[in-house]
Amino acid sequence: MKKKITSALVSVFNKDGLEEIIGLLQKHNIAIISTGGTAEFIRKLGVSVVEVETITNFPSVFGGRVKTLTPQIFGGILNRRDNESDQKEKEKYNIQDIDLVIVDLYPFEETLKSFQDGKASDEEVIEKIDIGGISLIRAAAKNFNDVVIVPSKNQYAKLAEILKNGDETTIEERKVFASDAFIVTSHYDIAISGYFNSKSLRYGENPHQKAEFIGNLEESFDQLHGKELSYNNLLDTEAAILLVNDFKIPTFAIIKHMNVCGLATSEEGHLLEAYKKAYEADPISAFGGILATNRIINKDIAGLIREQKLFIEVVIAPDFEKEALDILMEKKDCRILKWKNSVLSAKQMRNCFTGMLIQDRDTHIESEEDFKVVSKRVPTKEEKADLVMASIAVKHLKSNSVALIKDGRLISMGCGQTSRVDALNQAIEKANKFGFSLKGSVLASEAFFPFPDCVEIAGKTGVSAVIHPGGSKNDQASINMADQYNMAMVMTGFRHFKH
After folding, report:
1. Which residue in 27, 56, 366, 455 is deepest, having the highest Cβ count within 10 Å?
2. What is the CA radius of gyration of the chain?
């Protein structure tokens, strides 16, 4: 559905590129409403402009903080042209339609950077929090069925292309502008939230990168001891909590660069054994790692860590025995965290190009109910328990990845490879290096096998059971290979890519 633009509200901070837009609005006889400096800019171009005060019958007040926040302006934007009640109210209160809103917000982020560099004051930062502009953007974007919103100078060119061909827009075009608008407002709000809630970190992943945390870390844990947490510490600690929280039984994990390198489960009351087994899986990688468990750390575990003279960045647990805490606190730099809330945000966000990618967290945990046995041999009770554990372990490894589990412990893993064969060979090499026999172990892959090569390699090394999502057009070849080596194979239907 096309809509004709008859009036436009223009209120921008940055005037770069605006001259062309104003010329096109004038060409189509579109009435222009504007504010302050923008109105002066338009008049200097020799174009007629109506100042907002003329419509609102109220001056700009409080140093320009309140200019457009009136029913006359927002009613002109938000009234629904096809709503009979809205139209009656519009006539009653003499409100005029505004069909196009062009905004470029106060440069909050630039001012914040100047503040961080010592070149701007707190007051200057606060004054660059745009209120009227952000409200105009939200209002126009909400009513995209009738109104075009141009939320920043970055969208001027897109509007210019439309205006060169006429004074009408399609619903598809208006919806795209609205989508851009909410990206702009979301980014702006995050930047402001960061100013009020951010915690500066020493640096980012590397010393030449600046970093900060936006949010409240105390919601998730209390830091009982040690140095300030770094950017990398926080990423690794979150990965560790997510891993051990996937297990209901006592579990100990060691995380390095967001990958699990040590993992073991135990019966209640035997967490020390789980720690020993997790450490033995790869004592080299454990150096400088993150230790995490879903049970209380006692003095025996803390005493063994001290005896090992193991350098650790972070220890995190639901609680610590007093004697254990006393021992761990002997390491003055070790961060000791008491985890009090394992429930993290249901969404994951990351920057991508000039926008953001948002997805649900991968919270699925495989159970035996998910197993579809596709091989001739059915897995034993012991193999089933290890297959469940393997499926959880591989979920917490960077793709492409595999995990090898035996008797409730991770004996090796391969991750971050561009080939699953490489990941498996990496895991086998590590297992051999630390003296583990693969005979009777189980293998998990976070994605299906496109070819039977990995199953064949696993069979030759003594792996007795395999778990993977399935779904390849070549699944049968892998099944046949499993049968050839008398391996049990189960498919789950759940892939766990981790980029």
Report:
1. 455
2. 30
**67 neighbors 35 (Cβ within 8 angstroms):** yes
Q: What is the CATH number of domain 368-491?
A: 3.40.140.20
Domain ranges of the chain: 3-198, 217-339, 368-491
Give the list of residues 6+ apart from residue 20 with CB closer than 8 angstroms, or none: 156, 160
pLDDT digits (tens, 9 = 90+) for 456-495: 999 999 999 999 999 999 999 999 999 999 999 999 999 9
Q: Which of 15, 28, 142, 187 is catalytic?
A: 142
Cβ within 8 Å of residue 395, ≥6 positions away: 246, 362, 446, 496, 498
Residue type, 193: S
CATH class of segment(s) 3-198 = alpha beta
- Residues 335-385: tens digit of each pLDDT: 999 998 766 788 898 888 877 788 999 999 999 999 999 999 999 999 999
Instruction: Summarize pLDDT for 12-47 with one digit per residue, the tens.
Output: 999 999 999 999 999 999 999 998 899 999 999 999
Q: Tens of pLDDT along 192-209? A: 988 888 888 989 999 999
What's 217-339's CATH class?
alpha beta
Q: What's the pLDDT at 82? A: 94
Long-range contacts from 36-40, C-beta under 8 angstroms, 24+ separation: 36/60, 36/64, 36/67, 38/10, 38/11, 38/12
The yes-or-no answer on residue 142 being catalytic is: yes
CA 306 to CA 214: how far, in whole Å?
A: 34
Instruction: For strands 100-104 and 7-12, give the pairing.
Output: parallel
H helices of 250-353, in order, are: 271-281, 283-286, 299-308, 322-328
pLDDT value of position 32: 97
Q: At CB < 8 A and 24+ separation, what contacts does 293-296 make?
A: 293/244, 293/250, 293/251, 293/252, 293/253, 293/317, 293/318, 294/244, 294/245, 294/247, 294/250, 294/251, 294/318, 295/250, 295/251, 295/271, 296/271, 296/320, 296/321
Kind of pairing between the strands at 312-317 and 335-339? parallel
